[in-house]
Design brief:
about 80% helix; mainly alpha; 2 domains; 22 helices; single chain
């Protein structure tokens, strides 16, 4: 097995381990040991700083991915590319700091009424954003050296475990609240030091920039590419975090914490899509280079079928068990179950559109995707402005789901018009019918006093029914290779 294959396998194992740790932490540890307002502060501080941090490096992360191979030379310390990379971060830090100070009074006024605790710690946003930006560019730099396992391990596992430790220390009153917040930010400082030391130990790092080499590769193409792709990164990051930031402006911090927990459950549905994109991106990109349109159509069509099937059973499981799942948490989380329901339906619609991102962004029409992401970010802001004041955190969930639906519809139209591809056939309608029938029958299954037993019993029955219907409708031809039983 080659280095890339080994690292890919290790990354997959580490990533899914991190998902489990994050799930347990956010759903069962954080709501029990932190108040909803304390959890809300952590989430909004992280969300605000991450959005700023996405802008701060001025696209150097994207530049690393595409242009670092031109500088790769360990003996010559990569021509001082590390120092060149830091120039972007320093310039971006100066620009972002100036803008935040310029609009500081407006930002504070926006949050002062509903989220005064965030205002008290707002001064941490700039250094925190700088630290997160350092993590981001060091991640891409170390990954460019083919050292992806260390990056994934710290992001997926160590950060989450250390945060649990910090929460426990605060809960035991070993840390004051101020120290708790500083320690939370300190975890990212430790990550920066880890990545920096890792790069120094395993590779050649130099701050002495070889400007003739930089000039030979081309400064303008690097800047143009970095800034263009950074627009997509900013939009993508903003879409994930804008609802959290805007809830804090309209509602109390408690609701930010409640929203973070209840909406997180829906992310389980999108995990298969994320995993499949990582696997299929390279192949779809290769097919575009080879002009293998039929190969792309085949992957696109199959991705819709299988992701709808997987997303469907996950959606049913969440909808049928959400009341029992949230019953383990404080009452205010159980009262917000509609957030999970709305977000889960939105996630299912998103996963049901298949690998449209991979098809569009790996094609020569990727610029449409960039513009579309910017449009979606604007749309998400508008939707949140409309629906959060009307419906509260349920409005934030609806705004995100609506924005995602519109985004996917436009992507579908672009791919249909530009590439003459559309992935849906009769099997999609069959899957929707199976989901509806299974959910309806699942609602009729009685509950037990023991909550865990109810969830397990309901899930087993529903899963068996779902798989049986999938087999009966012959939606997955591969089933015939595994099951000898034929229904007449």
């Amino acid at each position: 097995m080659g280095v890339i294959q080994k690292q890919g396998l290790l990354n997959t194992v580490i990533t899914y381990s991190g998902v489990v740790i994050g799930f347990v932490s956010l759903l069962f540890i954080q709501p029990q040991l932190l108040t909803s307002s304390e959890l809300g502060l952590v989430r909004i501080l992280l969300a605000f700083s991450t959005i700023v941090a996405t802008v701060m490096p001025l696209g150097v992360g994207n530049i690393n991915t595409k242009f670092f191979p031109h500088f790769r030379n360990k003996e010559k310390k990569h021509y001082g590319y590390f120092g060149f990379m830091l120039l972007f971060l320093i310039a971006g830090f100066i620009i972002c700091t100036a803008l935040i100070f310029l609009f500081k009074s407006n930002i504070i006024e926006l949050y002062s009424e509903q989220s005064p605790l965030f205002v008290n710690y707002f001064y941490l946003a700039i250094p925190f954003a700088f630290i997160i930006a350092c993590v981001a560019i060091l991640n891409t730099y170390v990954s460019s050296l083919y050292k992806t396992v260390a990056v994934t391990f710290w992001d997926s596992i160590m950060n989450k475990l250390l945060f649990v430790v910090v929460i426990v220390l605060y809960y035991l009153e070993i840390l004051s609240f101020d120290l708790f917040v500083f320690s939370f930010i300190g975890l990212y400082v430790i990550q920066v030091l880890f990545l920096l030391i890792y790069a120094l130990v395993t590779d050649s790092v130099s701050l002495r920039i070889n400007f003739p080499k930089i000039k030979s590769v081309g400064v303008k193409p690097m800047i143009k590419y970095g800034l263009l792709l950074s627009l997509a990164s900013i939009s993508s990051s903003g879409l994930k975090l804008i609802d959290t930031v805007m809830i804090g402006a309209f509602l109390e911090l408690d609701f930010v914490g409640i929203f973070a927990v209840t909406s997180f459950i829906a992310l389980i549905i999108e995990i298969p899509l994320t995993s499949l994109e990582k696997i299929s991106n390279v192949q779809i990109a290769r097919f575009w280079v080879e002009n293998n349109i039929e190969g792309i159509k085949n992957i696109y069509k199959k991705s819709v079928r299988y992701l709808m099937l997987i997303g469907g059973i996950l959606l049913i499981g969440i909808l049928l068990n959400i009341q029992d799942m949230l019953s383990f948490l404080p009452q205010q989380y159980a009262d917000a179950k509609n957030v999970t329901i709305i977000a889960s339906i939105g996630a299912f619609i998103n996963i049901s559109t298949g690998l449209n991102n991979a098809v569009l962004f790996n094609s020569n029409k990727y610029i449409y995707g960039t513009y579309l992401l910017l449009l979606l970010l604007v749309l998400a802001v508008i939707n949140n402005l409309i629906f959060i004041p009307l419906l509260g955190i349920e409005g934030a969930a609806f705004a995100s789901a609506l924005s995602s639906v519109i985004y996917n519809i436009i992507k579908f139209i672009i791919i249909k018009i530009k590439f003459k591809m559309q992935p849906y056939d009769l099997s999609a309608l069959k899957i929707l019918l199976i989901i509806s029938v299974t959910y309806f029958i699942g609602c009729l299954i009685p509950s037990f006093e023991f909550t865990v037993l109810s969830m397990v019993f309901r899930s087993v029955i529903v899963s068996f029914l779902y798989v049986s219907l999938v087999y009966l409708f012959r939606i997955v031809p591969e089933f015939d290779h595994y099951f000898k039983l034929k229904f007449k």
